[in-house]
Amino acid sequence: LCTWHYGENYLFNACMKFLMERIEPNPIYTYSFFAGITGDNFVQVYGHDYNRYYDCISVVWDSEELIKYVFGQIGYEYTFVNTKQLVSNKEMFAEKLKSYIDHGIPVIRKTHEGGWHMYVGYEENGKTLLYLEGNTTEPIKLNADNINQESWIFVGGKQGKPTLLRFIDRLYLTSLSWVNLNKNTIVPLEHKLFWIGLIILKKVALIR
Predict the structure, then answer these.
(1) Which of 24, 25, 167, 187 is most deeply buried (CB count within 10 A of its CB)?
(2) Are 202 and 66 within 8 A, CB to CB?
(3) pLDDT at residue 26, as a whole number
(4) Please, what sign has the CA dihedral across residues 35, 41, 47, 49?
């Protein structure tokens, strides 16, 4: 998924790059592109809840809102299956996962601990699932019966190509909400510089 010594430290962005390489090969969809729109390359979250608020945006902001925002930025629909839905309908979603993999489309796995992985295969008709994490080169095996504390994200159809101005506006407005992740969150200088950069980028887009 990622190469640690290239500075690819944020796994959600690596998952998005891996996914887009398979459904819409485009040189713009790089690790850095997704680390940019999530804010991971610009902002670290610091707060007084040391069990949570001391990491990158995509780990701290780990709800469906992150998925909605990122997929919306690139113009794709998605299906977010939370833990409760997955456990109560495991067989149905397992069949959906197998169908995606059979068509060469990986499925994003979000663990309860904030980890991001990619399901890329299965064995024994789905009794064993195969996923990638970090810089592993070979898929890791997981007994499907042990799935109980994770969520799955299935990519959907393409909604359209967002314009640059719309992209910048949504990114700016979303970045404002990052400071509300925790009432005790400290907003570092890098975050403020990120906002200034977006404003400048918008002015350039308007001129063009």
Answers:
(1) 167
(2) no
(3) 86
(4) positive
pLDDT digits (tens, 9 = 90+) for 32-66: 888 888 878 776 665 555 555 556 777 777 678 88
Compute the average pLDDT of residues 139-146.
94
CA distances from 190 to 44, 101, 106, 187, 194 (A): 8, 39, 33, 8, 6
Amino acid symbol at 50 = Y
Side chain identity at residue 108, one-letter code? I
Task: Confirm whether pTM is higher than 0.90.
Answer: no
- Model confidence pLDDT, tens digit, residues 106-116: 999 999 877 89
In angstroms, rounded to a whole number, what is the distance separating the alpha carbons of residues 2 and 11?
7
All residues at 6 or more sequence positions from 195 whose CB lies less than 8 Å from its CB, including other chains? 172, 175, 176
3-state secondary structure of 117: strand
Nearest to 151 by CA among 61, 81, 208: 81
Residue 88 CA, chain-centre distance (Å), reads 24
